[in-house]
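Provenance

Sequences were taken from public entries as deposited. Structures were produced by running a predictor on each sequence independently, with no templates supplied. The record for ATP-binding cassette domain-containing protein from Oceanobacillus halophilus is shown for reference.
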Amino acid sequence: MNENGLPSKHLTFELGKTIAMTGKNGSGKSMLLHHILNHGEGITLSPKVVFGVYEQFYVIENQQLKS
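Predicted structure for ATP-binding cassette domain-containing protein:
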């Protein structure tokens, strides 16, 4: 466990692999992705990593809102 009470995990992926995160709404997927993209505490990425995020958008009353 880390200082936030969350389990510590070490993940390693082979070069050239595509990784997807799935889960229920509100389960923390976006929060984790933003933490990784911002090189948050405990995050180490190889300089070879190419990171991309696909976000969905909704259009309500002619205004574009992020989901």
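The mean pLDDT is 76.
Helices lie at 29-37.
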